[in-house]
Design a protein that fits this description.
The protein is built from 17 helices and eleven strands. The protein is an alpha/beta fold. The protein has three domains: about 70 residues, DNA polymerase, domain 1; about 180 residues, 3-Layer(aba) Sandwich (Rossmann fold), CATH 3.40.50; about 50 residues, Arc Repressor Mutant, subunit A. The strands form two sheets. Strands 1-2-6-5-4-3-7-8-9 form a nine-stranded mixed β-sheet, with helices on both faces. Strand 7, helix 12 and strand 8 form a beta-alpha-beta unit.
Amino acid sequence: MQDTDFHPKAAAAFLSDARLAAWLRLERASGIGRRTGRKLLQAFGGIDAIFEAGFDALAAHVGQAQARALCAPASSETRSLIEATLRWRERPGHRVLALGEPGYPELLANIPDPPLLLYIKGHVELLAAPVLAMVGSRNASLQGRTNALAFAESLSAAGLCIVSGLALGIDAAAHEGALRGIGSTVAVIGTGPDLVYPARNRALCERIAVDGCIVSEYPVGTPPLPGNFPKRNRVISGLAAGVLVVEAAAQSGSLITARQAAEQGREVFAIPGSIHASLAKGCHILIREGAKLVDTAADVLEAMAWSPLVRSASGTAPARAPVESIPDGSAALLGALGHDPVEPDTLLATLGMSPALLSSQLLALELAGLLERQPGGRVQRVVK
């Protein structure tokens, strides 16, 4: 793990308009990416010193083309972005944090390629709390979403802030559960801070902006570009002391997040599933690679308690909510379902009931939230 070994000369808790403009100029200068920007900050000691340095001093560190870009006046496009960012920041609850300056999350600052700027909506203090990331499939099963919500609620009740990516499926369920506890939630988005993607999560996003925190490394107006979402995954893991993968296929992007977390020195946890479930394959792969197998929130809390990255993680997970009432006459069917996907024909042979009765009871269990229909006509029990 690398240290942030530069110290701004005149760091302030709130970036002035001029300093924010300088940061945006650095970030938008041709040939200056995150790593080069960080190299300059380390070399010159802060954002002001970079733009006070002359061409020769800059060229000695980044080359002549980049030095010319930094010495040139801001382009009209950059000036427009600066104006739009300043207007965005004027709204209540909006802030911009700069790398190496007060308020920037310490854990994130120490990954190999931290964002130069973070755009924040909501409770910025959550970024300094004990944080656990939860990720998983966008096309999650009902059981996976149920697990994500239950784990997030328990961990948030214990004081952990849950960070995820505001995607459909596991991410959304994790945010929902976390909002029910004192730990709350942080959503790391892959667009500019003024946009919401996917649109189906707009209401959830608005709740998080009020009761949690939304984080983006992308400037105002950045649309949902496909390449930005994999990049933001390093921020999700970088903000957290550990990453819990709830449900993931073998080729899921969640595995990339988990592996990035391991490279960043974070704890990696995975919830196992049925050997017949494709959405459990990714978790099983991670467990074989060394992720900790967990089947309760208490397992995560126990591991996090001794993690050197977490300053404190007190409290215990609350008991599971009681299972919903089993519809009349469906107890035998629920028992026969087990926990793996099963063909209706197998249930007919096992229970000896008529197809009409089986269909009726399956529908009753589905409406009660105790059963999920799988591709190919199979059904699977859902445990709450």
